[in-house]
Design a protein that fits this description.
2 helices
Length: about 80
């Protein structure tokens, strides 16, 4: 007797037949979970949707101000006629 192995494609959903990364990116872009019941990546899709809705705070670089003592500031005056 021979053994019969069912080969399932790793990283693919059995309901929607999409690869894991494609399913997550497409549904997160729409902002909805997978419309098919039994999607294997439903948890990852909802997590990605929540991550996209968060505000991302990016710190700004502080500008350095050098003050040199005993020098007068140079001011350019423009006279209008």
């Amino acid at each position: 007797m021979s053994r019969i192995h069912q080969k399932t494609a790793r990283g693919r959903c059995t309901a929607c037949k999409r690869s894991r990364r494609v399913a997550i990116v497409e549904q997160a872009a729409k902002g909805e979970t997978c419309p098919l019941n039994g999607c294997e990546f439903a948890a990852e899709i909802t997590q990605e949707i929540e991550n996209r809705q968060r505000l991302r705070v990016v710190p700004k670089e502080k500008k350095m101000v050098n003050i040199i003592e005993k020098k007068s500031p140079k001011i350019d005056l423009i006279k209008r006629k």
